[in-house]
């Protein structure tokens, strides 16, 4: 094949053969995922598995170029895989529309891949994949973008820092555009839906017909989907016609919270592993309350009836403003977080939807901050990051981990270069995820093996010289305590009754570990390989070496690591390598929050850089 031949000319025949035979997993088929799948299919990779939960939305089409209008509502992974198969007909590519966190995707499933590439915008999912790759001992190429910022790095258990080695912000203040209409799982999904879909459809500038530009064959192939889109457009058009009547708010409410929810509930397969949404009744929620929608408490989480009242009031206010637009002027509204009517409409809509899907509700004040900071995804940034990921993947597969690096993309008109790189960092000795010993617990029948059986088996291991070096053992699963020396209630319970089935993980820790020398053990539960052994622990022959955790001698920010140090407040100074002339290089943030690389050779210049830098180390080390 041509791509394999070209790869061999650059990296050699052995690397090309390794890449062609490697089985790679791509998690996410969105902005980065589309670019990544295209690059992999044209770079000599022959065995690709793509997984994504989402379906294609109209807002995706401006940057996810594997998708077209005719693909709206179809699974992203399936359409993307079909597209790259058209590019490369000999490709062995598999698509799955599923949640990567489902228990079926256990440690054995991840172990079936030679490399995993993350193209996710979900922090929780990225943490999960990071942990599963550590458990399966599979290298991971991690990535992320946010506007003009982007990064790509390689994670290899025990050799490099993992995704959790550097602290992440507890709450993000900027979010990529990701409108999830069918299966929201977080407040931001409901906020984006309310702002970028419903508000835009009802009060924003109207878009062209969904089937415009399609030929006769395309229309015939997608008749069912086009018909559904036409029905939605017609329903919204009818609602717009009723804007001058007193029924406008009720009609909108009944359509989006009752009729559309009923349509989603009819898709039984969608709710096999997810909580189905709840239909909301306007008649029940529109009862009179003491709540005054003209003066809502911006910091309070309102009652459901009060959100309904705020929805009605804000919808009527926006409709009235739209109807009063002078003739000849554009008849549409643009969302502004400082517009009380627009903000109240988005807040009420988002919280009603959150309630329907069992998601945490947010105050108007919190929604104002979140809705005002949704940043656009930039197609060029996605393309650059995807290209860097494939290069890193080839080097990781060929055993050249020392040649891999963490690369940052940060565009600024004041800079001649937009890609900055640094060597892969060593694991953080304090990391609560990668400073663990990962083993596999294989069981035949989870309804017969008890937690006590597992602990007895661990005791026998110690007698045979395979001690896990854990004293006064305690067992936890997530935030749930299963056993410790003072809590033995679960010893007689089966693993199945404790919901410890294949795909789950339990953590074994030592109660007495003041010096931090006892490394916790994480057991990944998986099915037994044979029927003869009801209980078996694998991976005991692999004893990782961990550097002992070092307590900081002081709280001074000028603490150094292997390859960078905080030389002055807010400046990360890299060791010689960027300049190659004996000087150091510093990464700071511009006034617009973009990384800048400057060479510094004396203390005076360091101080000058510090004056313009921020004091947030985490945001520089992990921009996205």
Descriptive account of the structure:
The protein has 18 helices and 20 strands. Strands 3-2-1-4-5-6-9-10 form an 8-stranded mixed sheet, sandwiched between helices. It has a 6-stranded mixed sheet with strand order 13-12-14-15-11-16, with helices on both faces. It is an alpha/beta fold and 624 residues long. It starts with a helix and ends with a helix. The radius of gyration is 27 Å and the shape is globular. Helix 1 packs across helix 2 (13-21), helix 3 packs parallel to helix 4 (76-87) and helix 10 (248-265) crosses helix 12. The model is unreliable at 171-179, 208-215 and 554-624 (pLDDT under 50).
**What is the percent of helical residues?**
25-40%
Count up the helices: 18
* Order of adjacent strands in the largest pleated sheet: 3-2-1-4-5-6-9-10
User: What amount of the residues lies in strands?
Assistant: 15-25%
Gross morphology: globular
Termini gap: 36 Å
Alpha-carbon Rg, integer: 27 Å
**Class computed from helices, strands and strand pairing:** alpha/beta
Q: Care to count the β-strands?
A: 20
The major pleated sheet works out as: 8 strands, mixed
Mean model confidence by pLDDT: 79
Q: Pick out the low-confidence regions.
A: 171-179, 208-215, 554-624
Say what oligomer this is: single chain
